[in-house]
């Protein structure tokens, strides 16, 4: 089966496409048969002995045996361990309710901040932005966020300061931005110094020296969603030449 | 469904940017977004794209009795719908404040300004007049629904053609579009609505706010004007105090914008008329952009049909063959439940069975009895459908299925 | 695009039935609205439909289902208020969608599908189904199979016409719409109007299954085109 999956790497698949485990090769008496292990990522599901595609997109592969379907999507579904940008909607008792763009609002305990105790509450208001990580996120339970890691340190998570602009992009662009050594961030670094926070729920926060520069960074990122590398480089170059 | 809440960070940034005269998409303070007007296949259908805001208007007509107070005039009816497609916050059937405000503004802008000659819509005075109905659907909400709606409504009304009517004595004949060419409505002028949003208690103003700017604005001023610089309606909402100079300045800006938009509408109408005269197909299908990778079109295709009748006949025959295997069907009447599989009555009532078999065809039993097949009957007689029911009716006629 | 060719294939069977099976030209565009999570427009000849879908999103407590997503279908006509006919079409579309969506992956959430008629020139229900399927694919919802809709009309002389126009529908004796799935070409939903024999029904089902292959091929081509740009 791995061979028929390997053939399709980079091909566009539609929901309902099936990869069956076909025993076409004759059983050799000299070679020992190996058990194949394939890890199915998002977009692929196991159906008995078959692997069925459930989302439309391009099949990707990571060595040695991880396969997944790369699809363009706008709606976020909470996954454990992912860091997202949330907006505080209500403060009720000991818990904040945070909107992350999913099907349910996530809960964030006020004790889940660095250095927070029952007496020393964090300074968080309704409407603030938080960068937090999912502690619990599955389809059966209410999602739960925390702003500290397992050792109790903030490690970059927590409430945002003043300034900056929040905007929304598709999930595919966010994944491309978080890939190590990716070109978009490299091109952006050459342009202006700016702060950028990437939430896996499709929300980006950017802050540069002036309002104009922040707006430029936001518009560049929103438009680089559908551009090839070449088009993006020409656009960035035009902006760098135009604005000094 | 709830819409995403606006964070404090976005609000502060937007207000700070407006103070520096910067907008999110790089426009100037008095700039409109790109307006695109396309028409549908039938007369009276118009799509308007104002940036990302999309609106569709459809005009239709029918003959009705006129109002008693105005027996010589036709009737105009406006129906604006906030489709749940446009925004997750819009819910079907929920009459929100925004819907009422938009409906009222559209009525004031088009009906009260008398832009359409309603007297020409009269067919028989006091008895039959044309009712022109304008339905506007929101397809995508990215701010400034009112402007897009007014442009779509007036463009659709200008595009619409009503059927021709012939009057001979007392008889009124309505000709179909094939018999006689339909007639356009007589439109005196084109009122178009221009929206101004105010921030920081009236200090800053923006034309054509997008959705995020609408969320942080303090108040809204809507001016409906036509290209002859006549104001058709003014409405200010949000409770902001405006100075006289501000209102005059807005009306000057509005007159410039309205003349630009009116030129755009007339050009779009002319293009459409030319295309129809040349016989080219018009409509939403043609206006679909072909170069985008998200769009695809194919030609008319034929489908391989060999062997189909044989395949179909085989299916039918095999289905028929199965029908003979069915045993005497025992059906409970509707409304009656049954517990268990309910087959043979094993209470040792063999004597009663023999008696019951004689009149089981149209028997009327107050109790529930299950009729078993007569054993030892070698003939293949017709199997009746027996309906178990506890109805109290006297005459129960059981219809037998046709033997196949 | 270049000229539109009209190719018809007439197959005369031994029973004397004449098949005029052509499908009108298709067009499809995905991701054309900025607010919905998935949107598409589907065009069959002159009939065009716009579909938008939101989900998985928050659901009202009164409507939530503990182990599945709640699917709501709303059909909006161009003129007037929706009537019983639209409710029936909504029911047909909803049943087809629920059979193919993996809604148990999103319990206690809502999926809302809104269909807007842009122009009705026949085969409206099958156009709704095709637009709905493309909108689900655009939104990235997990589906177990794709589905498509095919309409057949039986004319008064017994001729079977696929994908009929409004005039052809009006002059027909019976109108049948089937929803076909992509994995096994089985009938997921059928909605018929008029009288016809069992043999004619089986023929129309067989014709629809053959026609659905073309539609699924079209789906594949449009999705391939969409992902063709290497970003």
Search tags:
heterotrimer; B: 404 residues; alpha+beta; Ribosomal Protein S5, domain 2; six-stranded mixed sheet; four-stranded antiparallel sheet; 7 helices; 18 strands; C: 231 residues; 12 strands
Describe the protein in words:
The complex is a heterotrimer of chains A (244), B (404) and C (231). Chain A has five helices and 16 strands. Chain A is α+β, with helices and mostly antiparallel strands. In chain A, the strands form four sheets. In chain A, strands 8-9-10-12-11 form a five-stranded mixed beta barrel. In chain A, a hairpin with a 6-residue loop joins strand 9 and strand 10. Chain A starts with a helix and ends with a helix. In chain A, 33% of the residues are buried. The model of chain A has no long low-confidence stretch (mean pLDDT 86). Among the domains of chain B are: 199 residues, Ribosomal Protein S5, domain 2 (2-Layer Sandwich); 64 residues, no CATH class. Helices cover 26% and strands 24% of the residues of chain B. Chain B contains seven helices and 18 strands. In chain B, strands 1, 2, 3, 4, 5 and 6 form a six-stranded mixed sheet that branches. A four-stranded antiparallel sheet of chain B has the order 12-11-13-14. Chain B has a two-stranded antiparallel ribbon with strand order 7-10. In chain B, strand 2 and strand 3 form a beta hairpin. In chain B, helix 2 crosses helix 3 and helix 3 runs parallel beside helix 5. About 9% of the residues of chain B have low confidence. Chain C is an alpha+beta fold and 231 residues long. Chain C has a single domain, classed as GHMP Kinase, N-terminal domain (Ribosomal Protein S5, domain 2, 2-Layer Sandwich), CATH 3.30.230.70. In chain C, strand 5 and strand 6 form a beta hairpin. The chains are: A alpha+beta (244), B alpha+beta (404), C alpha+beta (231). Chains in contact: A-B, A-C, B-C. Chains B and C meet through strand 3, strand 6, strand 15, strand 16 and helix 6 of B and strand 3, strand 4, strand 5, strand 6 and strand 8 of C. Strand 15 of chain B pairs antiparallel with strand 4 of chain C.
